[in-house]
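Form 7-S
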Amino acid sequence: MSTFRIESGSHGPLGSPDASPSHAAAQEYTANQDAFARCRHYRKDNGLYAVVDPALGRIMLEVGAVGAVVMPASLGTKVRGLLTTGGRQGGPIIAHPRSGRWTFLTGPTDNSYLDMALFADLFRVCAAVALPGSRIVLPSPADEHTGYRTWVARPNRDYRPELPEVIAATRAVTIPSKHE
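Output:
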């Protein structure tokens, strides 16, 4: 004899993945455990002192000791190309495929966000320096599985380019030279 459960319009045999609320809770628990494990890795191996938001299962990093520059992926490709010339490292870089944006993690933030000329240059190309105290989300296993947030360039130990270096590269690839 087959047993069926009827819940909020969902019909299916007991034990099917979508029929049991406990199955969804178990998946959420597993995703959160994976996020906590990844967060520990980021802290221990990469010096990224993030925390997991238990309600969302997201790995959150406060901007301050780590800075961030956000830009369109097409611009990010050019910036990364300039940063990696001569065998240098250009990352870590987070991709947000749905919005078509990249986030470059950098060394500590500074007061450059107060520079109105810099703000105008970045605004013109849809880029921005993350403000101190704001939060960015690091890729979790669940994010990577769904393609919601992924690494373009994974962290390599605790290396991050300096904020002024990423800003200079961004300006260099966006400001037309006098020869164009």
